[in-house]
Write a structure and sequence with these properties.
The protein has five helices and six strands. The longest helix has 8 residues. The two termini are about 35 Å apart.
C-alpha cells in the first residue's frame, strides 16, 4: 500500500475533519489540509507522521524517522499537545496485487526517490512531484507524454 502526499481534498482541513469525527481539541491546531491518499477505501484515514509519536500497538515504521498510524488514538493526539512534530492525514490509499508494484517499478511506471520531511510533510503540494523528480536528477521539462520504442 502507499499514500499519495500531494493531492489535497478541496476545502477539508484536519481540524474540520476531527470536528466532524467528534474528536475534541482544546488547543489551536494548524489548518493542514486533508490529503487524498489514494482511490481505495476513501472513508479510511491514515496518519503519516514523524516517529517522535508512536502508538505501541498500531504505529508501523515506514521509513527512517517516519511512521504510519490508522487509529482513533492518533487522531486524538493530533488534537492535543502530544501530537507528532510533523504529520499528514490522508483518506484512502493506493494498493496493488502481489508482484504488481514491483513489475510497475521495473517498467518505469513509478519513479522511486529517497524521501525527506519537506517532500512528505510540506504543504506545497503543487510542486512535490517536481521536487521528487529533482531528487532523482530529472527535470520535468525533459519528460515526454509520447512513448516510443528504440
Amino acid at each position: 500500500m502507499a499514500l499519495a502526499v500531494n493531492r489535497p481534498v478541496e476545502g477539508l482541513t484536519v481540524p474540520d475533519l476531527l470536528t466532524r469525527l467528534g474528536v475534541a481539541s482544546d488547543i489551536h491546531m494548524p489548518a493542514d489540509l486533508v490529503l487524498l491518499g489514494g482511490p481505495v477505501e476513501r472513508e479510511r484515514g491514515f496518519v503519516l507522521h514523524t516517529d517522535d509519536y508512536t502508538c505501541a500497538d498500531s504505529s508501523v515504521p515506514v521509513g527512517e524517522g517516519v511512521a504510519l498510524t490508522a487509529t482513533r488514538e492518533v487522531l486524538q493526539a493530533l488534537a492535543s499537545d502530544h501530537r507528532p512534530r510533523r504529520s499528514v492525514l490522508a483518506l484512502g490509499y493506493a494498493g496493488w496485487g502481489p508482484g504488481q508494484l514491483e513489475r510497475e517499478v521495473r517498467e518505469n511506471i513509478w519513479l522511486v526517490c529517497e524521501p525527506d520531511e519537506a517532500l512528505i510533510f510540506g504543504c506545497d503540494h503543487e510542486h512535490k512531484w517536481t521536487r521528487a523528480l529533482e531528487r532523482l536528477g530529472i527535470s520535468a521539462a525533459w519528460l515526454s507524454a509520447t512513448a516510443g520504442r528504440a
